[in-house]
Specification:
The chain has 211 residues and is α/β, with parallel strands linked by helices. A hairpin with a 2-residue loop joins β5 and β6. It starts with a helix and ends in a 6-residue tail after the last strand.
């Protein structure tokens, strides 16, 4: 049997797509983590995907601008389109913009919380700052994923190479090494903006969330 060059390429792309799907399906399920005490009691009036520029404020937030993005998939590799994604984190001075935290010295230019929905490719994107440590916690960003047909997933993203990761009790409460590793992402230089970082954080929703 002979296969034309076009047919060979088409077959190769089909196989590659299948491998990509299988790799996604085989990825470690994103573990649930604590919401923490500083999830907003109600979303702020400005809760878009740009946490660096807050509506009504004269300047940007303090901190290293970081693009956080990724895809959300089901454990079988299905793209989760149109689902809600929320993030919240402390500002560059270690303050959550929450009535339960001390706001003395907080960055009034930082939004602190953002929300969006995944697109047709199951992707999401936020513009925020590099997370910083505070008190006993290693740098992290809180995430929540919600939508029809599955239970809400709350988790956290951590920064690769941070010394505090080894002793952060919440991170190390994840006993499965693959699941724990899936929460820790490298920060890389953004190709288009000097001094700006990229963080890719893909999340996989376990089958238990759909039961």
């Amino acid at each position: 049997m002979t296969i034309s060059r076009r047919g060979f390429l088409g077959t190769g792309l089909t196989l590659l797509g299948g491998l990509t799907l299988n790799r996604a399906a085989a990825a470690a399920v994103t573990p649930h983590q604590t919401e923490g005490p500083f999830y907003p009691r109600r979303p702020p009036s400005d809760s878009d995907t740009d946490l660096v520029n807050l509506a009504g404020r004269p300047g940007p937030a303090t901190g290293i601008v970081t693009h956080v993005f990724g895809r959300i998939l089901a454990e079988d590799g299905r793209p989760m389109t149109g689902v809600g994604v929320e993030i919240w984190q402390c500002d560059a001075f270690g303050h959550y913009h929450h009535a339960g935290d001390s706001l003395t010295g907080a960055d009034a230019n930082f939004q602190g919380y953002g929300q969006t929905r995944t697109g047709a490719d199951a992707g999401y994107r936020f513009r925020t700052i590099r997370p910083v440590p505070y008190s006993w916690r290693t740098p992290h960003i809180h995430f929540a994923v919600s939508g029809p047909g599955f239970r809400r997933l709350t988790t956290q993203m951590y920064v690769a190479g941070e010394a505090r990761n080894a002793r952060d009790s919440i991170l190390n409460a994840v006993r499965d090494p693959a699941q724990r590793a899936a929460l820790i992402v490298p920060l890389t230089a953004n190709a288009a903006e000097d001094g700006v970082l990229d963080a890719r954080f893909d999340m996989v929703l376990g089958r238990n969330l759909f039961s």
